[in-house]
């Protein structure tokens, strides 16, 4: 082989090496972006779950207080618990009927919005 042919072989070899490195770097970049998105969505959903648990505890304690108060008004403390249980049966029945249209749809939309939301970067990036 002549010197020119060797140079061309070396250039093609270097080109393939650079293309392979580019491919590996691109795959790594997509992995890191996917991990970033997953952690953002998880953090957002986790914070909402924590808030929901706090609200549930508030309503749980409020329900106990109202049950005792209503029971006191009705003469027997357990009557108040029956009244509150009936209230929650009605609320649960309503939630079962509206869950597809309002609850699941909103949750799905929220998760999709979080996945495709652009991350705000600070001025240094």
Automatic annotation (TrEMBL):
Keywords: Membrane, Transmembrane, Transmembrane helix. The chain crosses the membrane at residues 49-71, 77-98. It comes from the Bacteria. This is Phage holin family protein.
């Amino acid at each position: 082989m002549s010197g020119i042919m060797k140079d061309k072989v070396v250039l093609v070899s270097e080109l393939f090496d650079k293309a392979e490195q580019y491919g590996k770097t691109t795959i790594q970049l997509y992995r890191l972006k996917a991990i970033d998105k997953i952690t953002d969505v998880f953090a957002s959903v986790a914070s909402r779950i924590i808030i929901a648990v706090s609200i549930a505890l508030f309503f749980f304690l409020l329900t106990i207080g109202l049950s005792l108060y209503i029971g006191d008004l009705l003469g027997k403390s357990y009557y108040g618990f029956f009244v509150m249980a009936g209230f929650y049966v009605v609320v649960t029945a309503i939630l079962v009927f509206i869950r597809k249209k309002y609850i699941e749809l909103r949750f799905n939309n929220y998760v999709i919005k979080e996945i495709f939301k652009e991350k705000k970067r600070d001025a240094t990036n």
